[in-house]
Amino acid sequence: MLPIMIESSRTDLLSLEPDALRQTLSAHFASRGQAAYRAEQVARWIYGRLGQSFEGMTDLPVDEREVMSATFRIDEPETDRVSLSVDGTAKHLWRLSDGQLVESVLIPTDRRLTLCISSQAGCAMGCTFCATGWGGFDRQLSPGEIVGQYRASRRWADENDYGPITNIVYMGMGEPLANRPAVNASLTILNQGYGVGARRITVSTVGVVPGILELAERPEQFGLALSLHAPDPGLRRELIPLEKRYPLGEVLDALRRFDGAGGRRITFEYTMIRDVNDAPTLASRLAVIARDVGAFVNLIPFNPIPYKDWTASPPERISRFASILEEAGVPVAVRETRGRDIDAACGQLRAHALVELRPGRGRTS
Length: 365
Ligand code: SAH
Ligand code: SF4
Description:
two-stranded parallel ribbon; binds S-adenosyl-L-homocysteine
């Protein structure tokens, strides 16, 4: 009788860190009386050629490919939808094996192709300005589901003449530092397996202190972006409920430790919401904090969401804010909003889907 194949009983190779992958494969081939080099052959298919199926690993004997298919899996997310912006930004909505939807965005600029990936389906942090936050939390992504977004996006970018992905940011859906086991593993896999330089990978957090400290302990120089949005704890609390658990002072202490670990880049993300957090006095306070930890400041015009009637700060207000930071010696950039026509910012496509499919799911304001 044929054994019944239960999906979860097969080991997901995309979720294994490179060392564990090689050990697992070595043990597998040893138990089958196969040569030791077979493990490296498979590793090369996975990391070098982005192999998606064991049948396609043509330098392995056919029998071995069949046994591998029954023992392991290489599950990439399936494309549910691709939206292309007039500015070249490409957003993928991915369907995971249990039907969950997450998204990633490819953002081409002059010299770079940045991939923005998701770390959770939804997010539990409930930031009031963020569509993902309003949609609530569904589940954690596995390392393979995070890495799978990179693999599938890289293949898509190649097929569509976007060129190689140069940078990865964990700025899609979810709070990466609230999914540390999977995110830590995915960082190792992207860096050691797929060869993406640590300094080309940035983890964005809303301020999960233990996660920042853990990242500081790692030897690799991954970049960190703190979603700050307010230099003042009172105002920050209105935007980011997590401020109650990890107050700004503690977050800044953690950032000093991160900065002290050497050679790492810290960025502040600051979403500019009209008449909420764009007063010139706040720019001066922000400058003090940014200088303290050597942060680069990214000012992002607020992207309207269905749940709030806030609007983006007008351009002259943003310029004024930026000048105050510059005059205080803080490096600053005003991020143009990319892919607005396709709702490429921050969980919006899925948020719209949630509104359509599950009315009453989000909070009401
Ligand atoms: N949870 C992480 C990473 C995902 S959010 C974090 O919060 O850092 C990615 C970025 O998009 C964050 O800086 C977030 O503050 C920002 N963002 C969320 N909603 C936005 C909106 N409506 N307009 C502009 N930026 C937004
Ligand atoms: Fe979550 Fe980041 Fe959105 Fe806050 S801004 S709700 S942490 S995804």
